[in-house]
Amino acid sequence: MEEFKGIFASRTVWGGLLALLAGLAGLFGYTVTAEDTATLTELLASVGSAVGGIVAIYGRIRASKRIG
Fold first, then answer.
1. What is the pLDDT of residue 34?
2. Is the Cα dihedral 15, 40, 7, 5 positive or negative?
3. Top-confidence residue, 10 or 17
4. How many folded domains does the chain comprise?
């Protein structure tokens, strides 16, 4: 693997974080199914992509130098 991506672009990282949160929720009596975790992973990946796009556009608007 020669290509890189940001840590939050990884679905594995999002899935791991959600598994951790699901485990913590279980300590307080909440139940999170594997289906819920999969749905939340997809949702968070989509939100992360949208936020990344917004930040990129904002950064280009606020930039002080031209692209060239």
1. 83
2. positive
3. 17
4. 1
Does any domain span residue 15?
A: yes
List the domain range (segments joined by +) for residue 17.
8-62
**Burial of 17 from C-beta contacts in 10 A (0-12 / 13-18 / 19+):** middle
Burial class (CB in 10 A: 0-12, 13-18, 19+), 32: middle
Where does the pLDDT of residue 1 fall: very low under 50, low under 70, confident under 90, or very high at 90 and above?
Answer: low
Is 0.85 topped by the overall pTM? no
Q: At what angle do helices 34-62 and 11-27 cross, to 10 degrees?
A: 130
Q: Considering the domain boundaries, does residue 2 fall inside one? A: no
